[in-house]
């Protein structure tokens, strides 16, 4: 910790550290700003004077920061193995194949592609090229509204759960309006008629952390803790969200807990580092993790204190390590899709 402090002090205003809420305590204590992926994208774009943006989060977030910052600014990811299994579930070649399937069904022209922030830069660029947009869990409703004002259908990737939860619980669609496109099946496993009838074409992807919460865990916690409020992230499965009391992004979860009545009881379904931190910071509340068998996000957890110290000390000594760069063409189109998102009003929650 002393070495991290020294390196940070030596770099001064040249350095800005962003920390996602799922980061370890040992890392988050050094962040200049903490946030969900939407807030961090905005914060990165608002720091034109920082020479180095050290991103304590995962690869797709650092790519977005590079896209939204000036060419001379350098974005650093302390461990290059900090990827995201959900982002890996949608590859550019698969998405291009899906677009051809939609074209063959005669619906590509009326479909707006929407990618969750949790996707690689080339997928965001695909959306930018096809008049689509990026969304995060805190603005998915506003983004879907925007998209459905411009087209008749949305191809939503990579998280089927965020897409379904937003469409059904916030946009008034039914489950029958949604179909699931499986990139590992011929034509996505869908007929042309199914694609023509659907409003939401959901990519078959999920978060390997949030996707593991079960609706049985909601029943179990309600039986165990009478009066408990169940608060979950919209990356959770639809059955889990249906049984919960409140749903929202990590930033929404934090605000909800900050405003909670003293003595109230909460079961939270999101990443464990955040739930533990909330429980520590709010001893006046009874906070429990929703499911006993869900682990930390393995890739978020890769950013640990040794990796952060290594990156900061190298920067302080003039060695730029683990820089994340997006090539200019990808950046151009991805920025268009990101900027459309940043220009929209945000905040979603359901109660
Ligand atoms: P938010 O930060 O947008 O809530 O997303 C959660 C997440 O899974 C980030 O990887
Ligand atoms: Fe990816 Fe899920 Fe980890 Fe977020 S929590 S980085 S979506 S695997």
What is the strand and helix layout of this fold?
Blueprint: H1 2-11, E1 15-20, H2 25-28, E2 33-35, H3 37-45, E3 52-56, H4 59-68, E4 74-76, H5 92-104, E5 111-116, H6 121-129, E6 133-135, H7 140-150, E7 153-157, H8 160-170, E8 178-181, H9 192-197, E9 200-203, H10 215-224, E10 229-232, H11 238-242, E11 246-247, H12 250-258, E12 265-269, H13 272-281, E13 286-289, H14 305-316, H15 328-342
Parallel strand pairs: 1-2, 1-3, 3-4, 5-6, 5-7, 7-9, 8-9, 10-11, 10-12, 12-13
The structure holds 1,3-dihydroxyacetonephosphate and iron/sulfur cluster (SF4).
Written description of the protein model:
By secondary structure, this protein is α/β, with parallel strands linked by helices. It folds into three domains: 2-83 and 299-327, NadA-like (Rossmann fold, 3-Layer(aba) Sandwich), CATH 3.40.50.10800; 87-207, NadA-like (Rossmann fold, 3-Layer(aba) Sandwich); 210-289, Rossmann fold. Helices cover 41% and strands 15% of the residues. The chain is built from 15 helices and 13 strands. The strands form three sheets. Strands 6-5-7-9-8 form a five-stranded parallel β-sheet, with helices on both faces. Strands 2-1-3-4 form a four-stranded parallel β-sheet, sandwiched between helices. The protein has a four-stranded parallel β-sheet with strand order 11-10-12-13, sandwiched between helices. Helix 3 runs parallel beside helix 4, helix 4 (59-68) crosses helix 15 and helix 6 (121-129) packs across helix 15. The protein is globular. It starts with a helix and ends in a 9-residue tail after the last helix. Residues 347-351 have low confidence and may be disordered. 1,3-dihydroxyacetonephosphate (13P) binds at residues 36-38, 118, 136-138, 207, 235, 249-250. 1,3-dihydroxyacetonephosphate (13P) binds next to helix 3.
């Amino acid at each position: 910790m002393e070495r991290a402090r020294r390196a940070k002090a030596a770099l001064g205003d040249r350095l800005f550290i962003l920390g996602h809420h799922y980061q370890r305590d040992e890392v988050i204590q050094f962040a200049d700003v903490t946030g969900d992926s939407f807030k961090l994208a905005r914060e990165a774009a608002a720091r034109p004077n920082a020479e180095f943006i050290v991103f304590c989060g995962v690869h797709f977030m650092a790519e977005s920061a590079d896209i939204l910052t000036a060419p001379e600014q350098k974005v650093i990811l302390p461990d290059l193995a900090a990827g995201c299994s959900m982002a890996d579930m949608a590859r550019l070649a698969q998405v291009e194949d899906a677009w051809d399937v939609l074209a063959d069904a005669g619906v590509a022209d009326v479909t707006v592609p929407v990618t969750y922030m949790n996707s690689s830069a080339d997928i965001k660029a695909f959306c930018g090229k096809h008049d689509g947009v990026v969304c995060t869990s805190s603005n998915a409703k506003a983004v879907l509204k925007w998209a459905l004002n411009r087209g008749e259908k949305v191809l939503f990737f990579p998280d089927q759960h965020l897409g379904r939860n937003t469409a059904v619980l916030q946009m008034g669609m039914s489950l029958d309006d949604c179909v699931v496109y499986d990139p590992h099946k011929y034509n996505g496993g869908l007929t042309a008629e199914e694609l023509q009838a659907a409003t939401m074409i959901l990519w078959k992807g999920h978060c390997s952390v949030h996707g593991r919460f079960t609706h049985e865990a909601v029943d179990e916690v309600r039986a165990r803790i009478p009066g408990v409020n169940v608060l979950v992230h919209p990356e959770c499965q639809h059955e889990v969200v249906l049984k919960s009391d409140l749903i929202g992004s990590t930033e929404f979860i934090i605000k909800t807990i900050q405003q909670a009545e003293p003595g109230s009881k909460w079961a939270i379904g999101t990443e464990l580092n955040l739930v533990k931190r909330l429980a520590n910071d709010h001893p006046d509340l009874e906070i429990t993790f929703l499911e006993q068998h869900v682990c930390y996000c393995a890739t978020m957890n890769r950013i640990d204190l040794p990796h952060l110290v290594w990156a900061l000390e190298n920067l302080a000594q003039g060695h730029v390590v683990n820089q994340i760069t997006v090539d200019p063409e990808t950046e151009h189109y991805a920025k268009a899709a990101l900027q459309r998102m940043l220009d929209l009003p945000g905040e979603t929650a359901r109660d």
